[in-house]
Write a structure and sequence with these properties.
This protein has 533 residues and is mainly alpha-helical. It has one domain. The protein is built from 19 helices and no strands. The longest helix is centred in the N-terminal third of the chain and has 46 residues.
């Protein structure tokens, strides 16, 4: 074929080169994200030791979730989900000058919008916090902390545009490293600033101030790398450009989707604070969520982030076959990584929680509460990862209302499950989230299959079944090794480090071996990110 048609030969060579670039980008992004998540775990260990899971730290947890909800609505992922397809399409058409003018306009409009929202919230903070009762037993503290934290909405909004531009040019390394710097700044605040504070309230203000400073660093760090591209962000307000209007049209359903997801989280916090235990439940769920997000952030975020610009370009070209194969690859790779992580973290939830958190102000009686929440979250780990990828795939198609409708249904289901499961205790709320994630992932997968004919459902289901079998074998070995060593080495930190570490290590070896015996091809294609049909 290549002798008769050199263009086909060149196209195949370009596709292979692009896959190698994707593989390198995914590996680098995953490694950088892994470092960031590891530092995030260190951050949470230090915070748990300093503040525990009970008491006024729950005021901080609620105060941080309020600006985090608004951030999800108008900044960060909401922006990139609408911005990258529009910006990538203009670049694909060769309209580079226009693409940068549109990016500049969106940058300044986002600044104006988020600044206005921040000012409005600072005034309305007492009314918003009042919805949560008296989190942590200190209403005024929660109000003050929320006011201090709210400027992160502005910083993350601008950061979303900067990172979106870099991702559209397949530049992932620096954006992946910015969370590393974010965590380092907060860790320094916890280690140096918190001990110097004169009261627990002051310590929590130092913690909040460190987050704001870290978010500023996260915004500024990637800016110098914009200079190496073929344009620059400048002062521009060309809101009449149809691409700017299309950005906001696309952003509305993305905002609705992410907003509904985070509204669900906020409703869960309301149940935890008002109906379970205002001085333990919100923070216990938050600590479990941090552990749950460790594999999520390393694996599924890396796959979805790196594939997103490619999906946007394939959609812009009308290459639905390539689009479907790319989605299929992402689903299998996320399953290969997150199914074993979810099973193992569920069965080893208590020793993992004990090893990570149980020291200082975090007392042994708090461990089972956090562990129960972690186990319940872990049930839905892979489904959350698939939802992330499938949402991005629909954004690449500029079919943004489909994830919004699914998110709306998920919110209703989540609230019903919250109401049904909160009486069982703290772990009932994370279980409700996991069941909703399962339903949401299934709905998105069916809708994607109907829209794009290239997804090979039978092959994917077969691969996932083999992965599940290997994961069950790995979890059985991990529990067995931990149990034997735990009985011999005891519950001191060194003994738990050895027992949990070797249990996880043995489970990993068994998983990889079982995948090889079962013929799981994702084992070989992991780094290549090539379709495995």
């Amino acid at each position: 074929m290549s002798e008769l048609d050199p263009n086909v030969d060149m196209a195949l060579a370009e596709e292979r080169a692009h896959r190698r670039r994707l593989a390198r980008s995914t590996a680098v992004f995953g490694a950088a994200t892994g470092v960031s998540r590891a530092l995030g775990l260190v951050r949470e260990i230090i915070a748990a030791s300093a503040f525990g899971a009970a008491g006024r730290i729950n005021a901080f947890t609620v105060a941080f979730q309020i600006p985090n909800l608004v951030r999800a609505l108008v900044a960060d992922t909401a922006l990139s989900g609408a911005f990258v397809p529009v910006f990538s399409e203009l670049l694909e058409k060769g309209e580079r000058a226009r693409a940068w003018r549109v990016a500049s306009t969106i940058f300044w409009l986002v600044l104006l919008l988020t600044a206005g929202l921040t000012a409005a919230f600072v005034l309305a903070a007492p009314l918003v916090v009042e919805l949560f009762g008296t989190p942590g037993g200190d209403f005024d503290l929660a109000v003050g902390l929320s006011r201090l934290l709210f400027p992160i909405v502005i910083l993350l909004g601008l950061s979303g545009i900067v990172v979106g531009v870099l991702n559209a040019y397949d530049r992932f390394t620096i954006p992946a490293l910015t969370p590393v710097a974010w965590n380092l700044v907060i860790i320094l605040g916890l280690v140096l600033g918190v001990p110097a504070a004169g009261s627990q309230n002051a310590e929590l203000y130092v913690y909040a101030g460190s987050i704001v400073l870290a978010t500023l660093v996260q915004l500024l760090m990637p800016v110098p790398w914009l200079r190496g591209l073929d344009g620059r962000l400048r002062l521009a307000l060309d809101w009449r450009d149809p691409a700017v209007r299309r950005f906001f049209v696309l952003m509305l359903p993305v905002t609705l989707t992410l907003g509904l997801i985070n509204v669900s989280t906020l409703i869960g916090t309301l149940f935890a604070s008002r109906l379970i235990d205002p001085e333990l439940a919100p923070r216990a769920i938050d600590l479990a969520f941090r552990l749950y997000m460790l594999p999520q952030g390393i694996f599924s975020v890396a796959v979805a982030t790196v594939l997103f610009p490619t999906l946007s370009r394939l959609a812009a070209r009308g290459d639905m076959g390539g689009f479907g194969r790319t989605v299929d690859t992402g689903i299998r790779q996320i399953g290969f990584l997150l199914i074993p992580a979810g099973v193992v973290s569920a069965v080893l939830a208590e020793p993992i929680t004990r090893l990570v958190y149980e020291r200082g102000e975090f007392t042994p009686d708090q461990t089972p509460v956090v562990a129960g929440a972690l186990a319940a979250f872990s049930v839905g780990l892979v489904f959350n990862g698939w939802m992330l990828l499938l949402n991005r795939a629909f954004y690449g198609l500029q079919a943004n209302w489909i994830p919004a409708v699914v998110a709306c249904g998920n919110l209703v289901l989540n609230v019903v499950l919250f109401a049904a499961l909160y009486p069982v205790g703290v772990w009932g709320l994370p279980l409700a989230v996991s069941l909703s994630n399962l339903a949401g992932a299934l709905a998105l997968a069916i809708l994607m299959w109907r829209r794009v004919g290239g997804v090979e459902m039978a092959a994917t289901l077969t691969a996932l079944a083999r992965i599940l079998v290997a994961s069950v074998a790995a979890s059985a070995v991990a529990v067995g090794v931990w149990w034997a060593l735990d009985a011999a080495l005891g519950r001191e930190i060194l003994g738990q480090l050895v027992s949990v570490g070797l249990g996880l290590g043995a489970g990993t070896v068994v998983y990889l071996g079982a995948c090889r015996l079962l013929g799981v091809r994702e084992l070989g294609s992991l780094l290549g990110l090539r379709p495995t049909g």
